[in-house]
């Protein structure tokens, strides 16, 4: 099958478009969840959607996607409101409130799912696919519902961009300006529930939490501004979703939802490792450079202090003496100082052959040592 054949395939078209919509809304709304330090919120709302899926099925009497997604939205919104009520009106921390809400609603969902499976209703077949997703079952009518939810959510973000931005970074200041902080937080939380609803068909209840958080976490490594973070998170979400969907189409038999999550997670791993100034690799390089700089600064100031103690700016310090003082070899640091013109080797006269190989500060080295010591003195103050 060629690429053109894939693009013309009805099922693949639905899966790719659905994955793109999911990545778009997840990246945008997940950014606010990450900035508000509510990464567990996506996990809570996705698990809390399960009882809504079951209730929607019981009310409709059939596996109607509209009823099921509406039930999931109501259930997720109730879970979000319960979590906010617990954390604001009790001494519970946010993580405790999220944990209580997650376990309670998910347990209720499992009970309802078990009950439905025991009713011998032929229409309930495949209902448990909402646990892990069944992207291949996505219909064009489902895409219209997912697209409508995505457009509504993105429209609200555009309309209330400044308010959401302020609430995410400094809710106290937002409250002092008279903004309805509580209602804005409720609205943001309900909108994340909307993103969960969009992803139920594609990746399911269990994996949806990763889709909410992963694109935002990856984007946060590369961007220092909310605007850039949101746009990049949306791009990562869309790219990971489409790539995972196409990879699933290429490898028949592999589930689409997990492949989408793995695709986005791979971007997170690369971002955590290699993002400039924030990645682990860059951090290791920075630490090694800092240690080398600290070592040569220590050796330079040692030479300066020895010269000051002997009241001789041309005081000659032997390699062995410097090594003993620092308890390790300082040869590499001295070579670096020599390359920078801060020290020179003493040229021993014929009558003093034993002084060969000793080190002497240059005027540039004296100036640099004084600068370092002055800087350390200011930091101590």
Automatic annotation (TrEMBL):
GO cellular component entries: ATP-binding cassette (ABC) transporter complex
The record's section on InterPro entries has:
ABC_BtuC-like, ABC_TroCD
Q: Which keywords fit this entry according to its UniProt record?
A: Cell membrane, Ion transport, Iron, Iron transport, Membrane, Transmembrane, Transmembrane helix, Transport
Q: So where does this one cross the membrane?
A: 12-35, 40-59, 65-86, 98-116, 143-161, 173-194, 200-218, 230-250, 256-275
Topology in the lipid bilayer: Multi-pass membrane protein
Alphabetically, which GO biological process terms does the record hold?
cellular response to iron ion; iron ion transport; response to zinc ion; transmembrane transport
**Protein's cellular compartments:** Cell membrane
- Segments forming a coiled coil: none
Q: Which domain of life is it from?
A: Bacteria
Q: Which Gene3D superfamilies match?
A: ABC transporter involved in vitamin B12 uptake, BtuC (1.10.3470.10)
Concerning PANTHER family, the annotation shows: ABC-TRANSPORTER METAL-BINDING PROTEIN, METAL TRANSPORT SYSTEM MEMBRANE PROTEIN CT_069-RELATED
What family is this protein classified in?
Answer: Belongs to the ABC-3 integral membrane protein family.
Q: What is this protein called?
A: Manganese/zinc/iron transport system permease protein
Please report the organism this UniProt entry assigns to the protein.
Answer: Modicisalibacter xianhensis
**Source taxonomy:** Bacteria, Pseudomonadati, Pseudomonadota, Gammaproteobacteria, Oceanospirillales
């Amino acid at each position: 099958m060629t690429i053109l054949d894939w693009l013309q395939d009805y099922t693949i078209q639905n899966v790719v478009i659905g994955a793109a919509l999911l990545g778009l809304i997840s990246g945008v709304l997940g950014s606010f969840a990450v900035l508000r330090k509510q990464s567990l919120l996506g996990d809570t709302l996705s698990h809390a959607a399960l009882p809504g899926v079951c209730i929607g099925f019981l009310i409709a009497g059939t596996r109607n996607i509209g009823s099921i997604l509406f039930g999931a939205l109501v259930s997720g919104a109730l879970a979000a409101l319960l979590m906010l009520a617990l954390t604001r009106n009790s001494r519970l921390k946010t993580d405790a409130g999220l944990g209580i809400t997650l376990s309670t609603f998910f347990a209720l969902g499992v009970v309802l799912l078990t009950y439905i499976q025991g009713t011998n209703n032929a229409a309930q077949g495949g209902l448990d696919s909402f646990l892990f997703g069944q992207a291949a079952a996505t219909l064009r009518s489902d895409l219209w519902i997912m697209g409508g939810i995505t457009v509504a959510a993105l429209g609200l973000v555009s309309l209330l961009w400044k308010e959401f931005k302020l609430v995410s970074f400094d809710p106290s200041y937002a409250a002092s300006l008279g903004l309805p902080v509580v209602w804005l937080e409720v609205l943001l939380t309900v909108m994340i529930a909307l993103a969960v609803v969009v992803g139920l068909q594609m990746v399911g209840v269990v994996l949806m939490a990763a889709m909410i958080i992963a694109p935002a976490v990856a984007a946060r490594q590369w961007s220092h501004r909310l605007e850039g973070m949101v746009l990049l998170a949306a791009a990562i979400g869309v790219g990971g979703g489409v790539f995972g969907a196409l990879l699933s189409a290429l490898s028949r038999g592999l589930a689409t939802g997990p492949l989408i999550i793995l695709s986005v997670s791979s971007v997170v791993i690369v971002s955590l490792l290699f993002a400039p100034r924030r990645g682990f690799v860059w951090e290791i390089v920075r630490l090694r450079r800092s240690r080398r700089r600290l070592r040569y600064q220590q050796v330079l100031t040692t030479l300066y202090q020895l010269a000051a103690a002997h009241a001789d700016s041309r005081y000659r310090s032997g390699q062995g003496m410097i090594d003993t003082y620092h308890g390790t070899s300082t040869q590499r640091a001295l070579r670096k100082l020599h390359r920078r013109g801060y020290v020179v080797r003493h040229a021993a006269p014929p009558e003093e052959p034993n002084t060969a190989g000793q080190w002497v500060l240059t005027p540039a080295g004296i100036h640099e040592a004084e600068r370092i010591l002055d800087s350390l003195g200011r930091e101590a103050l």
